Amino acid sequence: MTSKLYEIVSKIMNTPISQINDSSGPESIETWDSFNVYILLNEIEVEFNIRFTLDESLDIKNVGDFKRHLKNHGVDV
Amino acid sequence: MPKEKNLSHYMNEAKSIDPNKYEKKTKIAILGSFTLNGLAEVIQVKCSEIKVGCISYVSNYNQYNQDILNYSSALYKFSPTITFLILDTQSILGHLYYFPYSVDVEQRKRYITEKLDEIKNIIKIFTSRSNSKLIVSNFVVPTYSPYGIYDSKMDYGFKEMISDLNSKLVDFIKTQNSVYCYDLDRFVTRHGQTNVFDYHKYFFGDIKISFDYIPYLGHELVSYIKAALGANKKCIVVDLDNTLWGGIVGEDGFEGIKLSKTPPGNAYLEFQKRLLALHKRGIILAINSKNNVDDALEVIRKHPDIVLKEEHFASMKINWIDKLTNMKEIATELNIGLDSIVFLDDDPVNRDLISMELPQILTVDLGEDPVNFASILMELNDFDLLQITEDDVKRGQMYLEDKNRKYLLESATNLDDFLKQLNIIIEMKNADEFSIPRISQLTLKTNQFNLTTKRYQEEEIRKFTNDKTMLVGCAQIKDKFGDNGIAGVYVVKKENSEWIIDTFLMSCRIMGRGIEDGILSAILEDAKKQGAKKVKAMFIPTAKNQPTANFLSDYGFVNEGSYWVFSLENEIIIPPHLKIERK
């Protein structure tokens, strides 16, 4: 499942999957801008069939945060 | 409705597109009163799918007023050819969006009038400063009112305000050249307001239109680009068995096929009606079917529920020859490019064959269930025109007349006799408000008989007609079988003793009747009458205009550097089978 999450991040951020890890975020990924984050949120929601709350959305700063909040929705990645 | 790909697909694809590699290009500007990120990328990708290079300018969020009002704004520097102005109800209504009944009915009316005037003003300023076409969205009528079900009882109620604004906006836009109204309200209704508006992303990032629907919006907006570039389709080629009717006539027999007012034949009936409606609007229909011609014709001629009859098809290839050969013959026979054809066939093998061998043709996957055929057809945005001219509507009839001309040609003993019997009349007319749309349309789509292949939008043609040193005209061709409509166009620059032909083109449908010589002769005569000494013209070769290559030299023009020149001291000969009338 982790690989699925990384795959989506890699696709949206246009960054090789080998460079993605839990701490990947705006510092390490150049294309990590606000619009791409919106798209990423959307894609992850569609893929795992969940909806992040507004608070969760605002709290997500890196890939690890996605993992943490996915867990809240019962998705273990 | 075919499912769209995710926005992320378009975002990724857009990165690898080089718009400069395409011959056809367009520059689009997107102005919005809310965030429309991703829309430009969707449009870019969809343009590259039809081999159009699209360069875009996206105005900053809610900066459309400044962009339009400021003469030296980045928008005007970008100089778009098509501009989309997408406005939303909330930003136009402001306070009243939440509290519509905080003011009385007269104030509500006045408010809407003021807002309408503001939009009109913006439109007028933009069109006076830019040659771009302008597409303005209408306003989405809200589904919620604080007055609930009683809202419709209110005098000039909340929803009525927006509906009234929309209808007045449309009325105004109808009077404006080069401005079009995009029915955003209908788009939202069609997909559902609760789907299209994503409050989650709205509060998080002021994104109003959900990412899932940006691709659908892009699809609709691309129809304007296709239409403006003349990249629209002209002809639908259909299969018969399991496409126009259910079953196989050769096996199931005349009575056994499915075509009726009751299910399951009604799905095919619906499909035929939708095709007929397009035919009546000027889309040419043709058949490409592997069948016994007698079996198929019996259905087309005698079936009690048939909608599409012989007279609706400009070409019928019903035989056992492969579909590829048939397809090429249809294009030759109708004198249209393969890239203006749409192919509808239920059989995936046939579709694969055509899309592999003739990728210029738009091959549509109808799926297996006839229930979807009509809606798949209606979803295509390839038939749109920014202006439907009288000639477009008459096209079906004109192709029928063409069939009759061919019969005459077959029965005539030689070409001269045939031409004489046709009684061709060429009506030469200067461009006017009625003909300008058609003139522009012909410059945009004529490839074969075209000396310079210069593409002109309506706005440019209109400008030429106001220029005293320019002559813009067209030729309407009539003969004993009917009216071919406006089929020739010319643009001439008058420079003292020289006339320079900037554009000379003719619809390929009427090639081979000496009409081009007739039109040219008439121009030469006019030049002479107005005191010119010579007429100069240029031939700019393209991949498609080979039929024009020898036109000037055959007529008697002499090569001088990059120009071909005709001295008006020479005799001007009008082919004897032609009658020229100046209107």
Largest β sheet strand count, sense and barrel closure of chain B: 8 strands, mixed
- Estimate the mean pLDDT confidence of chain B: 93
Which word captures the global form of chain B?
A: globular
Radius of gyration of chain B, CA atoms, in whole angstroms: 27 Å
Question: Largest interface by residue count?
Answer: A-B, 16 and 16 residues
Which oligomeric form is depicted? Answer: heterodimer
- Beginning-to-end CA distance, first to last residue of chain A: 5 Å
**Helical proportion of chain A?**
55-70%
- Percent of residues of chain A in beta strands? under 5%
Helix content of chain B: 40-55%
Question: Count the strands of chain A?
Answer: 0
The beta-strand count of chain B equals: 18
Low-confidence runs of at least 5 consecutive residues of chain A: none
In the predicted model, the low-confidence regions of chain B spanning at least 5 consecutive residues are none
Verbal overview:
- The complex is a heterodimer of chains A (77) and B (583).
- Chain A is an all-alpha fold.
- Chain A has four helices and no strands.
- The N and C termini of chain A lie close together (5 Å).
- The mean pLDDT of chain A is 91.
- In chain B, the strands form three sheets. Chain B has an eight-stranded mixed sheet with strand order 16-17-15-14-13-12-11-18, with helices on both faces. A five-stranded parallel sheet of chain B has the order 2-1-3-4-5, sandwiched between helices. In chain B, strands 8-7-6-9-10 form a five-stranded parallel sheet.
- In chain B, a hairpin with a 2-residue loop joins strand 16 and strand 17 (563-567).
- The longest helix of chain B has 25 residues, at 105-129.
- The two termini of chain B are 48 Å apart.
- Chain A binds chain B through residues 11-12, 14, 34-35, 38-39, 41-43, 46, 51-52, 54, 57-58, and chain B through 6-8, 11-12, 15, 37-38, 200-201, 203-205, 207, 211-212.
